[in-house]
Amino acid sequence: MSDINIRITDREGLTHDIVAPTDMSMNLMEIIRSYELAEEGTIGVCGGMAMCASCQVYVIKDPGLEPMGDEEDAMLGEAFHVEPNSRLGCQLHIADAMEDLEVEIAPYP
């Protein structure tokens, strides 16, 4: 089993140091849900299909994320509270290259 360390600031401003597995095919949205860092029903509303932006995060420290795909870019083009460092958590698949990633969960519309 391989784990990475991620720092997530929730919508209340509290920072959480999280250990996330790289061998379970999880994405950042699922990690946030599993650690209950956002109120139920306010994250991953579409089930991780890049169709709602409820899992939007602001990337504070990017250790080497994969580039944004067209679907993610299109969804962020329609979302609220978008910043230049916005990404969708459902599109960020947990991988070794994400060690020391730091994100802040965006406000829920």
TrEMBL record:
Keyword Metal-binding among UniProt keywords: yes
InterPro entries, per the entry: 2Fe-2S_ferredoxin-like_sf (IPR036010), Adrenodoxin-like (IPR001055), Beta-grasp_dom_sf (IPR012675)
Gene3D superfamilies linked: 3.10.20.30
Presence of keyword Cytoplasm: no
Domain of life: Bacteria
Keyword terms, alphabetized: 2Fe-2S, Iron, Iron-sulfur, Metal-binding
UniProt-recorded name of the protein: 2Fe-2S iron-sulfur cluster-binding protein
